[in-house]
Specification:
Enolase-like, domain 1, alpha+beta, FAD-bd_PCMH-like_sf, 5-stranded antiparallel sheet, oxidoreductase activity, globular, Uridine Diphospho-n-acetylenolpyruvylglucosamine Reductase, domain 3, CO_DH_flav_C_dom_sf, Carbon-monoxide dehydrogenase medium subunit, 4-stranded antiparallel sheet
């Protein structure tokens, strides 16, 4: 439905579909510029700063119950795009994915997380949750003009970098393989963000995960750099069996550091790799310069945070 009192003059028409089918019908019905709204926290700041133009149509996703909530479906955790960040931060299922959990806690202020959604953070293309989703090999389910489609986060970000995304696609849900879930916390200090499987179970690989965010000041601010790391080590030979590393932050699009991952897997897993990890990440990470920081500063910060995180993982 379109809300009365809108649709004339400079005011946009506001649509509130109740189901995905109604959303699809609205997409086919309306003409002109449109914008899909979740929590709207980022969009409001962009409109106020005139960095984005108010469209002719606003399509709210808030009344579609099927795209909210967190559940276990088969061997995946499924997060509805309209799930509030506050709910994500307190959900026991998502606490098994510590990188994403800590990324969500680092987004904005508590009052903003009460309104903002994980779908909105992702759809921005630069949200702080994206490095975490990259290392967990997450997939996005999107409602497109062709129906429901699935894309890995890595491919979706690559398409965004190449300007190949369709602005009319709507994010419906996020799917994370449960195989990447953490078995047990290895430290009682949540500020360490270092997690590991039970070492008393010899057949299981040891897991190491951490997330870091660097801002311009201690209080809430947009990030300069964010990094995420997830790795597994064989208890038999002490070598990496799996490594996933991602970096992003600010207005930059998050990326997997695949060459750095390959370098780390080539050696035995221990704290002596920390310095080399930092060097490799600085060489591979491509960032940008703006009024707040140079590209070199961002690259060096990403490398230092990854190196420090790995050292801390072996010395909790």
């Amino acid at each position: 439905m379109v809300l009365p009192g809108y649709g004339s003059g400079a005011q946009p028409s506001v649509w509130q579909p109740d189901t995905l089918q109604e959303l699809q019908n609205i997409r086919e019905q309306i003409e002109g510029t449109r914008c899909y709204v979740a929590g709207g926290t980022l969009l409001r700041t962009q409109w106020e700063a005139s960095s984005k133009v108010l469209p002719e149509h606003l399509v709210s996703l808030a009344c579609i119950p099927e795209i909210s909530g967190i559940s276990m479906q088969g061997d995946e955790i499924v997060i509805g795009a309209m799930t509030r960040l506050r709910e994500c931060a307190t959900d026991p299922l998502l606490s098994r994915f510590p990188i994403l959990h800590q990324a969500i806690l680092a987004i904005a202020a508590p009052s903003v997380r009460n309104l903002a959604t994980i779908g909105g953070n992702i759809a921005s293309g630069i949200g702080d949750s994206l490095p975490a989703l990259l290392v967990y090999d997450a997939e996005l389910h999107l409602l497109t003009c062709r129906g429901l489609e699935t894309q890995r986060v890595a491919l979706w970000l690559e398409n965004g970098r190449d300007n190949k995304l369709n602005a009319d696609d709507v994010l419906i849900s996020i799917h994370i393989p449960f195989r990447n879930a953490t078995v047990n916390l290895s430290t009682s200090d949540p500020e360490q963000y270092v997690y590991e499987t039970e070492q008393s179970i010899p057949e299981r690989n040891h897991q190491f995960s951490f997330y870091r965010k660097l801002g311009r000041r201690e209080a809430f601010t947009a990030s300069l750099v964010t990094v995420a790391f997830h790795g597994e080590v064989s208890p038999q030979d002490g070598r990496w069996t799996q490594v996933a590393i991602a970096a992003g932050g600010g207005s930059g699009i998050a990326v997997r550091l695949t060459e750095t991952e390959h370098w780390l897997r080539s050696g035995k897993a221990d704290a002596s790799q920390a310095a080399g990890l930092a060097t490799q990440a600085v060489a591979e990470f491509v960032s940008y310069t703006d009024a707040f920081a140079t590209e070199l500063y961002r690259r060096q910060s990403a490398g230092n945070m990854l190196g420090a995180g790995l050292w801390q993982a072996f010395h909790p």
